Amino acid sequence: MQKLSASVILLLIVLAISTRALAQSKDSSRQKLLDSMKRTLTTVIVTARPPIIKNSADKLIYDVANDLSSQGGVAIDVLRKVPQVSVDVDGNVELQGNANVRFLINGKPSSIFGASLADALQTIPASQIQRIEVMTSPGAKYDLAGMAGIINIVLKKSDKDGLNGAINGSAGTRLQNGSFNLNMHKGKFGMNAFFSGTDQLNSTSINTFNRRSFNAAQDTITNFTENGRSPFIRNGYQSGIGLDYNLTPNDQVSATVGVDNSTHHGSGPTAQDQQVLLANGHALSDLLSQRYSSSRSKENATDWSLAYKKTFSREGQELDLLYMTTYGRNSDDATETTNYPNGEYGPSGSRTTNPGKNNEIDVSADYTQPLTKKIDLQTGAKVTLDHINADNAADTLLNNGAYGLDAGQTYQFRFLQHIYAGYVSAGFKLFGEFLTGSAGMRFERTSTTLAFSGASIPSYNLWAPSLLLEHKLSEEESLKLAYSYRVERPEYDDLSPFLNIADPHDVSTGNPLLKTEIGHKYEFGYSQSFNHDATLYTGLFYNYNSNDIQSITTYYPVYTLEGTTYTDLSLARTVNIGSQTTYGASLSGSFALDKQLDVRSDLLLREMVNAMPGQASISGFSYKLNVNLHYQIWPDLAAEVFGSYRSRRIEFQDTHPAFLFYTAAIKKQFKAKKISVGLTASNFVRRYVNQLSTNYGSNFIQNNLRQIPLRSFGVTLSYKFGRSEARKKEDEETPPVPAL
After folding, report:
1. In angstroms, rounded to a whole number, what is the distance separating the alpha carbons of residues 716 and 732?
2. How many other C-beta atoms are found inside a 10 Å radius of the C-beta of residue 105?
3. Are 348 and 406 in contact (CB under 8 A)?
4. Of the four, 6, 261, 279, 494, which is 20 to 30 A from 76 by CA?
């Protein structure tokens, strides 16, 4: 591990030196290389393929329009291709190696992300997405939530005059989805509406679990194994409508309403074998059992927003007001029954229902005032009111075959969190335009009420500075340095004491006493563009988090909770482990090899160190590599191949498996590119992807092998209709309103 750490440090030094060399070197060899690259790229401009990846000082933009291999897929398939973003086999997303990402849709929060982020992202069709925006170091204007940063999913919308739209559909062996978009603009009025849905066909995963635990008091070893099959179904839909109206050339009002729904259902039998042995290997008992479990989760969310924008005659002066509310309802129901074929015990089991409601209200005001030609001031305030109500009811299977109330697991959970924020930020150009950027300070006061016995969370204040500096080496080259202060507040699932006993031998729960995690993010980057259709980005990052929130597993030979006794149980509980330090490098680029072949690639290297008081630090090195080849066979026919590899990762108590994902696609366009037909194949060599993870503690080690069906073949169809033209600017018709 030390060798790996040294290798990463050496690589960071080399990258930093290389970046400086690129910025300062003026020797002839470098100039010849750049001239050669520019001549090569110049020959490709005639293809007029816009760049998919765009780097700016404050964000990275991934344009989905020309992404062939994501056609017919969902948001997860698009996110796999975004630099510095990685996705595991279950659809969990990380940004620079951190899973605590703040997700927005069209720049706004949505409660559809609250219950299950992975499920929500797999219900948004790729055909519905216009672009992905990634901010690893958000400025003072943005909420502090999201330790890793912010990912904004921008859905398709047209602002051109006329009536136009698109219909997209796909059918495949694992996934089918469709979407419909309609846009209408006339004069001062605009409207857009959409509906999209996805349906993941019934798939069956094969699970093999083994735990070897040690009981020092009795000098025994317990081997517990499970072998099961888990069919699961996932589906969902989204719909929304947006209206905008220009009251005057300087005043615009807009309103939106959206509805989101997702459902996930899994069930299946599991054969269990529990063997107890003495330390010398002598068998004391061998208990066989058969467990059948079923779970169903459902999330619904409705989002409303009303916005007002006022611009002034002075360029850059602007006022934005926004009111939005998101209302969600979710439910998690589970049942499990265990039978003993040899008759040692009678049947046992439980059933739980966990319905919940989430209501979040956001009210914000943002104002920008240019002070001079080189300095502008931005300020604003925001109030967020988040209320969550959950009612958990649990029943236990009795000896007579009926169910009786489990009082220890039946309760009401109330979570209220109010955040009051304000910020000031200044954008500037210094020393001519030698140095540009912004500096800001954000204040957030958090008041949290947790209506649960023994839980008391005091209110607290956070002062969060941010800084972004950029130096232009030339029109094509720039250096940036950024710092941001981020937080991860414990969410409902982290705090809820609900004991998830769908598997009585593998239980998880939250922790009402969690503290807020605090993070400091530092970034240094170098970017260059070549003739508008090729890009290069090299970056270094260093993140330090205190009160780091992680899940810790503890093994109990016997565990008693509210009068109910469980045996041979591992309990995963969310805790503040101490601190986590992450540092690494990212390298991404896109370029054309010739007139027809484009290449995109990105590499992320990361070293993570977890430190817990009283224990040795745990460190682990990991990387992610993406490669995408796009070949324009004819003007209306293109093919694409994409591959992503995510390496094995070592964390505080876990070892996560490596994951390989690949896709091949071809797309043909007809009728002046209004109609397109595509074919897509993913992970087509093998039916299953094997994922072996390990979890260990002082008195146990457990391995879990999951065989997940990912092979798929699909066909997509897209049809664009209507006519449109660029909207005529209002200020060309009416003189501007005088500045106030």
Report:
1. 42
2. 22
3. no
4. 494
Tokens linked to 179:
């979407």
CB atoms within 10 A of CB 678: 22
Instruction: State the Cα–Cα distance between residues 419 and 489, nearest whole angstrom.
Output: 11
Q: Which amino acid is at 288?
A: L
What are the angstrom distances between the C-alpha of 51 and each of 41, 129, 475, 599?
Answer: 12, 16, 17, 11
**Dihedral Cα 443, 449, 453, 454, nearest 10 deg:** 20
pLDDT band at residue 43 under the 50/70/90 scheme: very low
Share of the chain above pLDDT 70, in %: 89
Number of CB atoms found within 10 A of residue 737's CB: 15
Q: DSSP string covering 48-66, please?
A: ----SEEE-SS-EEEE-TT
> Domain spans of the chain?
2-732
pLDDT in tens, 618-635: 999 999 999 999 999 999
Query: Could you tell me the two tokens for 484?
Result: 């941001």
CB 569 within 8 A of CB 507: yes
Kindly give, in sequence order, each residue whose CB lies less than 8 Å from that of residue 39, ignoring residues fewer than 6 positions away.
Answer: none
Cα dist from 712 to 263, 360, 643, 680, whole Å:
21, 38, 15, 8
Q: CB neighbours of 634 closer than 8 A, spacing ≥ 6?
A: none
Q: CA 712, CA 685: separation in Å to the nearest integer?
A: 10
CATH number belonging to domain 2-732: 2.40.170.20
